[in-house]
Amino acid sequence: MKTFEIKNKALNSENGEYVLGYQETGNHACYMIYGILKLNEKRRLVKPGKGHAEIVLAVKGDLEVTGYYSVTLKEGSAFYIEGENECFLENIGNADAIYIIAGGHTEASHH
Fold this sequence. Notes:
The chain is mainly β. The chain has a single domain (7-105), classed as Jelly Rolls, CATH 2.60.120. Helix content is 8%, strand content 50%. The protein has a five-stranded antiparallel beta sheet with strand order 1-2-9-4-7. The chain has a four-stranded antiparallel beta sheet with strand order 3-8-5-6, with no helix packed on it. Strand 5 and strand 6 (71-73) form a beta hairpin. The longest helix is centred in the N-terminal third of the chain and has 5 residues, at 7-11. The mean pLDDT is 94.
């Protein structure tokens, strides 16, 4: 079994996210994004893209979601989005927020 350290990679990235996907797993079927939204950060884009679907989970803190969906996503809650639909995340809490995006393909022959 191989484990992946992703928190520090997200912390040290320019955009606050780390994508665990094909480069680490050798498989195109699915991917996971670990994201950190700093205090008061907003306009983090969520857009799966053609042939993809994603489930976005607020792990730590509440997120304001705008765009295709408009909702306050409470810690521990998730939403589903697919294709070219897009949303933006905003950290509305009083500390850094953490979210996980689990994604995969909706079309068998995408890659």
